[in-house]
Amino acid sequence: MSEKFDVIIVGAGPAGNAAAYTLAKAGLKVLQLERGEYPGSKNVQGAILYANSLERIIPDFREHAPLERHLIEQRMWMMEENSFFGAHYRSEEFNTTPGNRYTIIRARFDKWFSEQAQSAGALLICEMTVKSLLRNEQGRVIGVEVEREDGKIYADAVILADGVNSLLATRAGLRSDIKPDHVALAVKEMIFLPRETIEARFNLSGLGGVAIEMLGSITAGMVGTGFLYTNKDSLSIGVGGMLGDMRAQKLTPYELLEKMKAHPSIAPLIAGGETREYAAHLLPEGGYKALPQLYGDGWLMVGDSAGFVNSVHREGSNLAMESGRMAAETLIELLQAGQAPSAAHLARYQAKLDESFVMKDMKKYRNVPETLHTQRQFINDYPLLFNGAAHRFFTVDGRDKQSKEKEIVATFVQRRSLFGLLGDAFKLWRATR
Ligand SMILES: Cc1cc2nc3c(=O)[nH]c(=O)nc-3n(C[C@H](O)[C@H](O)[C@H](O)COP(=O)(O)OP(=O)(O)OC[C@H]3O[C@@H](n4cnc5c(N)ncnc54)[C@H](O)[C@@H]3O)c2cc1C
Questions:
Q1: Which residues, including other chains, have CB under 8 Å from residue 10's CB and lie 6 or more apart?
Q2: Which of 76, 111, 286, 379 has its CA 20 to 30 A from that of 225?
Q3: Mutate-to-test residue for ligand 1 from 43, 174, 277, highest number of ligand atoms within 8 A of CB
Q4: The pTM is what?
């Protein structure tokens, strides 16, 4: 391809599509390269879409995007082998106001998002893997090389939106190899059931939906979580844990998922369903402290390739869209003003991120990965203790309630000691400040 582009975007996930749409809409000449057969063909997500981030890019997306259900109820479960201790929040307001969180199916959603970018003028080429970045003599990135003969393509700037592995960034020395303690491996299944069955089991009507997030015994002591989300006529169920833990415990994600599906509180929800899709994928969970340099001469990094995942709130696709949009807006400002996309000028991208919730949230939870990694009591002891306390409290057996309360407190102190409990409360507070 002898043509030169204003911007080349590597990857057509939410980050790449947000960037492509924003740039093309502003009239820039955009080339997007995707290694998959079509956008979304290789992508995995729970998947909850956070409307606010998409709304900033395509305000009327609700009218035509392939959405499944808008969430009206959130359940948080601390799992033990035969029980869960949980909190549920459900509000009718989520039914009467425009949806805030939707379940989606990524293969359909990414395709739709990419079509919007193409309609705005971006050129997309699929089944095209980018193998390296091209640099000029001064070291500025001036294009990419794809896995084709004569595969050099030139542009003023390159956006790396190629996801968690980003071999491209690693090969180019822009990022170090991702560490097993900074990345989670998650597996997900789509289980199909008649729509009426899903609605009856989850107490739903219309297009309202439920999300269940889980932690505790389902990850067998590993730092990780599980989820179960309702789609129109399917359920998305998955579980993941840190890659380092999985290696150490010699556990496969498949084994974890099978065990989770057999849990007595989960099995009835999925009973009779037909599993049609199974996928595994990595998630960058190193947090703020693992973020690489996000821009340089002629290049910017967005989404998972930059490590933008808020694992505490299960947010990733929205951070991908926000960072994609902000990278695009930075380039629009520079290129339209005739300024070169040098590292000094691209520092504006970092400034935009710093001012946004993306970096503020990443910063807020900067100590969480380390805390969870070294303080396993939050994953192992507390789910056990809360489930045990609830069991004791709700079993009516002729003993008075005050004695039971004393027993519950004594069990907590016995397991963690008074200083241990106070210390844990402090660690939790510190990890989220
Ligand atoms: C099991 C699971 C559940 C999740 N659940 C949620 C959730 O409910 N909500 C949420 O917000 N987030 C969730 N996430 C996180 C979310 O999926 C990611 O944060 C999001 O997909 C990141 O988008 P991205 O565009 O940066 O990367 P990706 O979606 O990974 O897209 C990268 C694209 O780049 C392409 N690519 C890679 N290398 C090359 C190359 N060399 N050349 C050309 N193309 C290339 C890939 O094929 C892919 O299409 C979940 C993740 C997992 C694994």
A1: 16, 33, 130, 144, 158, 159, 160, 161, 162, 168
A2: 111
A3: 43
A4: 0.95
